[in-house]
What does this fold into?
Amino acid sequence: MSTTVNQFMGAPDKAGRFGSFGGRFVPETLMPACLELEAAFTDAWQDESFRSEFSHLLSEYAGRPSGLTVCENISEVLGCTLVLKREDLNHTGSHKINNVLGQTLLAKRMGKTRIVAETGAGQHGVATATAAAYFGQECVVYMGEVDIKRQKLNVFRMELLGAEVRPAMSGSRTLKDAVNEAMREWVSSVESTYYCLGSVMGPHPYPYMVREFHRVIGAEAYRQCHEKLGGDPDVVVACVGGGSNAVGIFSGFADTEAELVGVEPIGGAAVGHGVPGVVHGSKSYLCQDEHGQVLEAESVSAGLDYPGVGPEHAHLAEIGRARYESVTDTEVLAAFELLAQTEGIIPALEPAHGLAWIYKAREELAGKTVLLNLSGRGDKDVAQVQAIKAGDAEALETMKS
Amino acid sequence: MINLQESFETKLAGGSKLLVPYVTGGYPNPGWVELVEGCVGVGCDAVEIGLPFSDPVMDGPTIQESSKLALEGGVTAPQVLAKLAKKTFEVPLIAMTYYNIVFRMGHQRFASELAAAGFAGAIIPDLPMEESVDFAADASDSGISNILLGAPTANDDRLAAICEASDGFVYAVGLVGTTGERSELASSSLDIAKRLKSLTDKPVLVGVGVSNPEQAVEIATVADGVIIGSALIRRVLDTGSPSAGVEFIASVREALDAM
Ligand SMILES: Cc1ncc(COP(=O)(O)O)c(C=O)c1O
It folds into this structure.
């Protein structure tokens, strides 16, 4: 992994700003830990032995490189060439493992033996529990009570892996509240505990560090596109919750001619609503009311049910390098089934957002090559979708649009 | 308008220890303004007014609950400030809120509305030293002191820089954790107070975890005063009425005065 010059997605400034977004808005108790983490990451990322150990874990443990699949069947339906980056085929079933292996390896290097994480869909929680089991670290995962219900399979997976899952009972009892609880736990145990944040959000250096650990997605996809398609795709699409899978794949194409599109759920469209704010450690776009109270997101997908977004996305939107679109829950479920039935691939509900937008925009995309980051597989969502289709009242409650 | 540091220094020069209770603006509703008045009536030296925020990551269960109840009651920061603007208090008021409330309102508007409502300072726990430079300048233009926190996790160099930049007084975070009552006084409370006192001449008040008169007295042997939130709010949550909170603050005042 050589250090390349990145025009559009380089390092943030010293204060952790991407343009006017980012920073370190955390309680003073955590500031020394943020500074320590920044120093530890900077040191590790320049250290060839850390890099090679990380690469080794990605290939031998996570199963990278992940494939690139040109989807002929669905391309006929869409009228464009759909290419999938297969993060669903990684160990634990999503892109989340890249970041987690990087962070738990860093935690080990820093001598931290206890890991705390938040999770929405449970994919980051499962990945963290997995890596913690592998490295022999103690693991506590906060998860909103609503998400515990709709992602039961992942809760049990985390428990099987030896992690303790603690329900977040405040607010909307989804990802936002799990982050609040994880941050409070971090405030209380910062001296012994490593906080393994699951997306490109939070205080500096997380948005930067997590992106660097996911850069492998874009680097592989770039190489694979050139090998299989003979060049760059016209459009690169990814779903955006906090935005980690999206920055991962965008980073490979930011300095090409490809258009970059992030897709948010309509009930949690932080960039889409376009109001700057500060929550969970960074300045970014935020769904909030006129007085600055953070709104509760509403999405069928637990992984995207979040009112904020990583600061680098706010920056990419502001400078016009990426555009952000939104889709409804109904459109997402249709896309979920479409991919299953045409390609035999059941996607997670999160990347089904990306596909839902591609389907909706198919006229605009006609004849183009569209690369979608298939950030995870849908096993975790099958029970929820089954219940929605059967008209189960509680499951239908998770469908808001 | 009252200058925070001068007001505190005058009291300290008179030999008394400082007592600053925290009240969540908008909880209980009605009754929170009476709670503020009651605390002033029993001799506190300033009142910290919480402007409730949806995601208070520095707060434990008690203040989370009072903030949630206030927000569910529909209270907003401008309403809290407007209510207080109608009253006159003999002691300074200090706002405690999270940065998004300030950012959304705009630094200058926030600071000038605070000043208009009788405030002398602001504590914004998620706006650490490095991020607070612009706000501190805008606040100071309206006569509002931006108070910084010094935590047990910081080294002496960092604490010294915080003392230098903090305006009004220095808020010593008594323990590594969120706000809330603790049955035992954390030893870190005394340590952080001692460290900060050795680094600054500004008043040093310890908050977070101060739970009863005995703990307040022990801290005040080292620090200039205490800030008490959860122990007061919990009594109001339990009884639904401000008077239990006021009585509690009176008991802390009595204990500090007997030192
Ligand atoms: C498969 C999958 N994709 C995407 C996301 C959203 O996260 P991010 O926006 O950080 O990629 C999640 C979160 O749980 C997920 O599980």
In short: The beta strands of chain B are 18-24, 47-50, 93-96, 119-123, 145-147, 149-150, 170-173, 204-207, 225-228. Chain B touches chain A through 41 residues (CB under 8 Å). Residues 242-257 of chain B form the longest helix (16 residues). Chain B has a mean pLDDT of 97.
